[in-house]
Write a structure and sequence with these properties.
By secondary structure, the protein is of the alpha+beta class. It contains 5 helices and 19 strands. It has 2 domains: 7-230, Double-stranded beta-helix; 241-266, no CATH class. It is 18% helix and 39% strand. The longest helix has 14 residues, at 60-73. 35% of the residues are buried.
């Protein structure tokens, strides 16, 4: 199925949203919970799977279950939502927001050979007709120690898709044989030609006391890679650590407050 042709505009800097412009009859599929606002003639419908089979229902009950099963394996909801311009106005708009601070990355799948692999929680929305499936990591090292497990998402088709990241995004183009090493959580997406593996940090001191974990991802070209500066799990760890000490900050900023906390055993 050929994907619908959609126009878009990304709004904002740190907390971004993407505004999709639809012609009559055009549709966009979105992750549950990403909806922000829409014009009057946009209609929404909840479906199993990604709607890439045309009517969103697959081939009977088996198709429905397989579509839902893919989403369970990638840690997503059983359902997706289709937003369709069902009226007669020339243009109608629907807007989707990223779930945490970062950047929204537009991907024209035609430019990347019809397939992009991304983190299993990175997908935001796409033109109807784009298939959202699962990509199994073939190497045990990548599966056990990659931070994302054996399963990642794959976006396939000839339309536009949008993924979100944490913090700033760096795009790297790797030539054949060129290698990029990065923290396992910093990978957002990569093209299908990238060889993905996990390596152990060399040296006992670096592994035990470096504070960066025991493993890093190794990406070998050719292909393109999108890297995020602030993985969500890293941000969540900092928030959790700060919340544990939230009850000790009533007098924060004063010398007496710090001294008082010390004497009080806090």
């Amino acid at each position: 199925m050929a994907a619908h042709e959609i126009d878009y505009e990304i709004l904002g800097e740190e907390m971004q949203c993407v505004e999709i412009e639809l012609d009559p009859g055009e549709s966009v599929i979105a992750e549950a919970g990403s909806f922000m606002m829409m014009d009057q003639e946009i209609q929404m419908e909840t479906i199993f799977g990604d709607g890439s089979n045309g009517n969103g229902q697959g081939n009977g009950l088996l198709g429905k279950l397989m579509g839902a099963g893919k989403r369970v394996l990638t840690g997503e909801s059983l359902f997706m939502t289709v937003f369709t311009h069902a009226g007669h106005a020339p243009k109608q708009r629907v807007t989707f927001a990223a779930p945490y601070p970062g950047k929204i990355i537009p991907l024209d799948l035609v430019q990347y050979g019809g397939k992009v692999i991304c983190q299993k929680d990175a997908f935001l929305c796409a033109a109807k007709g784009v298939s959202i499936g699962i990509e199994f990591q073939r190497r045990l090292g990548a599966g056990f120690f990659g931070g994302e497990g054996f399963i990642m998402q794959k976006l396939e088709g000839d339309g536009k898709a949008f993924v979100h990241s944490g913090g700033h995004v760096v795009e790297k183009t790797l030539h054949a044989g060129e290698v990029l090493r990065l923290d396992t959580g910093c990978l957002v997406a990569m093209t299908a030609g990238i060889d993905y593996n996990i390596e152990m940090v060399r040296g006992v001191k670096s592994a035990l006391f470096g504070g960066e974990g025991l493993f890093f991802a190794t990406l070998r070209g050719p292909g393109k890679v999108w890297v995020q500066s602030l993985p969500f799990n890293r941000m969540a760890d900092r928030i959790l650590a700060a919340s544990k000490g939230s009850g000790r900050t009533r007098e924060e900023g004063s010398i007496l407050g710090g001294l008082g906390n010390f004497l009080d055993g806090r």
